[in-house]
Amino acid sequence: MENLIVTQAIVIFLLPLAAFVIQIFLGRRLPRQGDWLPTSVMFVGLILAVLILGRVLANYDPAFKITRTFEWMKIGPLVIRFGILIDNLTAAMLFVVTLISALVHLYSIGYMHGDVRYSRYFAYLALFSFSMLGLVLVDNFFAIYIFWELVGVCSYLLIGHWFEKKSASDAAVKAFITTRIGDLGMFAGILIIFATLGTFGFEEVFSSVAAGKLSGGLLTLTGILVFFGAIGKSAQFPLHVWLPDAMEGPTPVSALIHAATMVAAGVYLVGRTYLLYSADALLFIAMIGTITAFIAATIAIAQVDIKKVLAYSTVSQLGYMIAALGVGGYTAGLFHLMTHAYFKALLFLGSGSVIHAMHHAYHQLNDHHSDPQDMRNMGGLRSKLPVTFVTMLAATCAISGVPLFSGFFTKDAILGAALEKAATSHDLAHWLIAIVLFVSAGITAFYMFRLIYMTFFGQPARREILHHATESPSVMTVPLIVLGVFSVIGGYGSWFKDLVVKPELANYAAVALAPEALHETGHEAAHTAHTMAMWLSILIAGTGILLSTAFYYWKKFSADAVAQRYKPIYNFLWKKWYFDDLYAATVLAGTHLFSRISGWFDLKVIDGLVDGAARVTVFGSWLSGEHDNRIIDGLVNLTARIVGWFGGTLREVQTGRVQSYILMALGAVVLLYILQLAFA
Amino acid sequence: MTPVGLTHFLVLSAILFALGLLAVITKRNAVTVLMGVELIINAANINFIAFARYLDKDLDGQMFGVFVIVAAAASAAVALAIVLNIYQRMRSVNLDEADSLAG
Lengths: 680, 103
Hints:
The complex is a heterodimer. Chain A is mainly alpha-helical. Helix content of chain A is 74%, strand content 3%. The longest helix of chain A is centred in the C-terminal third of the chain and has 72 residues, at 579-650. In chain B, helix 1 packs antiparallel against helix 2 and helix 2 (30-56) runs antiparallel to helix 3.
């Protein structure tokens, strides 16, 4: 059975890759530009993922784990292994990813109809699905880093799908660079792991951590560094600024990548490497998540672009998940990842449907100036877009934590975990975390119902819109309905809680630490905390919804008047806490300044040195030339001249006349004779 | 009257050599110069024979004399061929004009 699951998982994993390769090379020549190929591949993947999940559920086993690895490369003593790890979390993630991906593919057929780069769009979607599935399947840090970057690339390509638009290409670059900052930390963390433990494999790393080979401050540092990857990818404070801009991409992409899957990869990463985090690292994670949840929620109140609201909502919800993991609510955080994927994908697809309708209506009215994404232009669309309205309302109830919807169970679990941690740890930080998370939950309910009221109730800016707005085709509404069903029922049952249990270091230690005893402590407090959290969260969500209704439905208070009255606060929120301006003033300006200094340094110092070296060389060459010309050549010429002089002188003797030679020989003999007489 | 001895022959040989040398150095005609060369060679031959007769009293010197006559004949033949070639080239056997090897 194990082999069957492994085979199915590999098929799920590789099918989108095959679809990508075919689509990118042949897509334009296939009928319908090949949109059916990645779509059907994803549905096949979905079926296989359901089979795997079904088998995992049928053979209930919290410790279920299959690994298959092989040696990938060997460089001297360095061995890098590559392999897949399938456990309950992977099975659940496979299901979520294939489900959302398949529905988004289907939806895109309607939404992207007639797009200039239709076939390429589907190719990139397939590549993304492949990368995301790889990310949840692999069993070591090295491989997860590869897929981590691959999903980043796909995100970049798809945000910049309409790259003719400056804002879209800017957003793509911003997303890419901002996440890269986090990835740098992750890379450093992975290097520390490899340097100290000599392995990349999750299992080996956890065993080593359990055995105390990596501990203390270094373990905390490593955990925080690896978590940096999640900060970037999951748009956590302070690197959250790229996600709202990423909304420049097509809406289905926002649903798939920037709501349901890729941005949740950071949460998955923390969940997958949970044993790497020391108590200090977890507190850091919880604080980052909480700050993110709060900041993003407050910003969402003031935004008017429907996708921006959803983007900040996503950032905020990701903060919840991260915070949940940080306070020890492992199952709660990952469960929220799953339900959030359903309802946030639904919200984005629904907003896409709304934008589609608005765009269509404006097109009919020959209005090319009004922004079809601006909620101030919308209103009263509920009768025109009934399916979109009902499904989005379900998703909004889910995200706001209305009882009996999926988000209620998971958010409740997170808040319960935060409260439990605060109650058992008795430190101020954890109490603050719990309180801020509760407040943010109320804000979430407020701004989400604000979105619903502004979009579907009241009157649009131009009444004629209502005559032209029509419901989207069924290829777009069917995914909405499917996700709507999941948004309602996704939180029921205890199957997820049973399957995905918090990993314990004790399971990796050679000597087990009697896990039973650990579980017993604080059980009573936990129960109380969870009950209290449930009532509190209902109360707070109710307050948020009530306030929202009072403002935007009953119009008891005027939102504009309040904004006018508290103008500084409103501006602060409207400007998104000035994060972009802050980064423009510090990081961007700093980078520009640094570039200018570097340029100056290059021009003056480096070029000066190079020019100086050149001048010295020229002088040396001149010197060497003079030496050659004058001294060496002079010696050679002198020799030649001496020889020439001798030759010129002696040639006089060579008369060519035989008799003169004989005479000379005679003279020489006579001379020798005289000499002989004189000296002998 | 003193009997004829070695000294007489040596004096004769020296006179002959001197005459030959005089002919070689002074004559312009190449053929006359060759004649002078023959006189010099024969002066040497007289010396060979005289020394063989008066000092060694064996036939070694006479053998050399015979060889020298043969060698002189051969060299005269070669030299005459050269003179003929010079004549063909310059239409003259005047040695003063044959100075094309001048440096």
